[in-house]
Design goal:
By secondary structure, this protein is an alpha/beta fold. It contains 9 helices and 10 strands. Pfam families: ABC_tran.
């Protein structure tokens, strides 16, 4: 059975003056896939992600996300994706329930649907005792899980996660990845950037950017075989050294 492409990128480029922050990258991402987008700071991965989520205009090339062109239908893309930034887009001065209600409204859900989603999310996350507490009082790990759940509240086709597990402990990171697996199993495509190389092992396929270009793209197993490496960190180091 032919896999459905939910992200299609061909020669996508972003110039800042004479500097190519993203240099003619090409790749496809499939429905229900966990796609790792790796690279050192300054490699261009955040710039590339901003183009794909419709908040930065490409200089040239082509890209479709959830069936919509990044040049002409950026607003449609935003309605069909979820996005979780490094800083988590939650409001510390609102309660857990108020945050869920606010983002449900932003994504255009009906009041009845927001109520249903709120109750389901709070129960699923085990936050019944904290539903009316300010988000600012929650531990970092709970904020992270809530932020991910809110990014999925409108059942998007794709969720983009920008360094989602930065600063949390290993146990919470593992629990977060269990949530990612569940979302992917239910058909949501997960596009994730991370600098934790052990997390790259959890992805179906991994793209590695170096100086604005994609220098490697395959499953972690195949990349380790290709580069004769014991783990993904060794693969990354070999590519970074050129």
């Amino acid at each position: 059975m032919k896999q459905e492409k939910v992200i299609q990128v061909t020669d996508l480029t972003k110039m800042f003056g004479d500097f190519a922050a993203v240099d003619a990258i090409s790749f496809d991402v499939y429905k229900g896939e966990i796609f790792g987008f790796l690279g050192a700071n300054g490699a261009g991965k955040t710039t590339a992600m901003k183009m794909l989520i419709g908040i930065s205009n490409p200089t040239s090339g082509q890209a479709k996300v959830a069936g919509f062109d990044v040049f002409t239908h950026a607003e449609d893309i935003k309605k069909n994706i979820g996005y979780m930034s490094q800083k988590f887009a939650l409001y510390d001065d609102l309660t857990v329930r108020e945050n869920i209600r606010f983002f449900g409204g932003i994504y255009g859900l009906s009041r009845e649907r927001i109520k249903q989603k709120s109750n389901a999310l709070i129960e699923e996350l085990g936050l019944q005792g904290a539903a009316n507490k300010l988000v600012g009082a929650l531990p970092l790990g709970w904020k992270q899980k809530l932020s991910f759940s809110v990014a999925l509240i409108h059942d998007p086709k794709i969720v983009f996660l920008d360094e989602p597990t930065g600063g949390v402990d290993p146990i919470t990171r593992r629990q977060f990845w269990e949530m990612i697996y569940k979302a992917a199993h239910e058909g949501t495509t997960v596009f994730v950037t991370t600098h934790y190389m052990d997390e790259a092992e959890y992805c179906d396929r991994v793209s590695i950017m170096v100086n604005g270009k994609i220098e490697a793209l395959d499953s972690p197993k195949q990349l380790k075989k290709q580069f004769q490496a014991a783990n993904m960190n060794d693969v990354f180091l070999k590519l970074a050294r050129g």
